[in-house]
Amino acid sequence: MSAESKKAHNFIQSLIEDAIAKGEHTGTVVTRFPPEPNGYLHVGHAKSICLNFGIAETFGGECNLRFDDTNPEKESQEYIDAIKQDVEWLGYKWADEVLYASDYFDQLYLFAEELIQKGKAYVCALNAEQMAEYRGSLKEPGKNSPYRDRPVEESLQLFRDMRDGKFQNGELVLRAKIDMASPNINMRDPILYRIRYADHHQTGSKWCIYPMYDFTHPISDALEGITHSLCTLEFEDHRPLYDWVLDNITIPCHPRQIEFARLNLNYTITSKRKLKRLVDENVVDGWNDPRMPTISGMRRRGYTPESIRSFCDMIGVNKAGGTVDVGMLEYAIREDLNDRAPRAMCVMRPLKVTLTNYPADQVETLTLPVHPQKPEMGEREVTWSQTLYIDREDFEMEPPRKWKRLAPDQAVRLRGGYVMTCKEVVRDDSGEIVELKCEYDPNTLGVNPEGYKPNGVIHWVSASDSVESDINLYDRLFNHENPDSDKEGDFLDHLNPDSLVVLKGARVEKSLAEPRTDLPYQFEREGYFFCDQELTAKAGKPVFNRTVTLRDSWGKGGK
């Protein structure tokens, strides 16, 4: 068992260990991750991925990737490809080939016929409204469909006619015959098959009837020899139906379904339907917009697989619901990047500085560490020249108390360079500050000045060889802690107007002319930033997305 597996110990692992100790489970542990290919995976799916693949790894077993593709009207190859990429990017490898529920359509059909022949299923002609009426409520039992007692032969023939395309969408369904008075509404003769005239991305036009999830899922698990079917808590009430299906067909394997609490993050929407609405209504720039909680969006923003796995480990796996503070996710990426991210300087809002006592035709090369605590990561070079840029926000004409940056007649150290003192402020015709004229102290490279104390340390770049860049300052997409609350109106009412601020004309040090694309940089004093390859290619200059600030800027909640 790996160190990571030991660290991630949870109640499901304990259940399996107990079953093995008692001899109730022998053989290989086999799990599965069964996404619907009707959208992109989000951070909630990451928890399930880490759990299913992690449990298999812990017990030396295997995990299948199986697409639950029973609704062709909402599915596409684009989603399949994206899901496969996300799982691999997170660092997991599924057993053998990718599997599809549609691989089992022939067998599922035969199992449905078996249920009909056993008197356990029937073809029903109630429409959707009638079926809802007959279903009853949480307080009232349902009542039997008038078609419930069709002769077996009649239901069997009608089911075959459904398969052969002799009825229209919604005209007939196949239902299980269980108990319309059951306190569990899922057991009140649920639908097993419905008619859908839609081409399927895997099976084409072969089928015009498609099985429902609650019928497909247990059989697919059993056919694959899954030993532990790990589901989120909303499927707890479906477990009796899961077991009923397997108990009433001829199949040797009966997996054990175990439920765990799904991931709910504050300031975050994880409903695929609502995420799709954000995309369709152009609120965001596609499924991989860096503000989206999708795995592809987080990847584009600069989140690392290690940080997401660490986050999933931190929040644990349990039966209790609840909401996790998104600050924990941000903490996980800060912890990872603080240790690994190379350092660089970026001046986001450039303000020109002229060193009046530095020769105009002179430059010198200064050496800075790539990482101050990691000498093995090497060094980088920056150029010191007469004309520099500092950030406009690092200068104040009338500084507040305890100001630790530049002001008139005050001195600061430039990171890795000399100490300079502001002597003159130059304004344009509108009164805007456009240049600072400063004097540098040539005796302060790497040593403290004599007779005075600098008022802090600020970052900078050389005007002569820094590189122009665009910066996307991403923040949380919603400014409400619970944007999905039914009491708070439409979730789009809670969009954060500052979720994206674009800064044009920023300047980065020359080492970022061709930035690395495998890991974000720490822009000193600013945060962590990741090169957006797609936007960089379009812009013809480096474009960086802010992954996360250096510290939580949302106050108490994230600390």
Task: Summarize the structure in words.
This protein has 559 residues and is an alpha/beta fold. It folds into 3 domains: 11-260, 3-Layer(aba) Sandwich (Rossmann fold); 272-340 and 469-549, Glutamyl-tRNA Synthetase, domain 2; 350-464, Beta Barrel (Ribosomal Protein L25, Chain P), CATH 2.40.240. It is built from 14 helices and 25 strands. It has helices at 3-7, 11-21, 43-58, 77-89, 105-117, 128-135, 152-163, 213-223, 239-247, 272-280, 295-301, 305-315, 326-340, 533-539, and strands at 30-33, 62-67, 99-100, 121-124, 173-176, 191-195, 209-211, 228-232, 256-260, 343-344, 346-347, 350-355, 364-369, 379-384, 387-391, 411-414, 419-427, 433-441, 457-458, 461-462, 467-474, 500-508, 521-523, 527-531, 543-549. The strands form 6 sheets. A 7-stranded mixed beta sheet has the order 10-23-24-25-21-22-11. Helix 3 (43-58) packs across helix 12, helix 8 packs across helix 9 and helix 12 crosses helix 13. Residues 1-6 have low confidence and may be disordered.
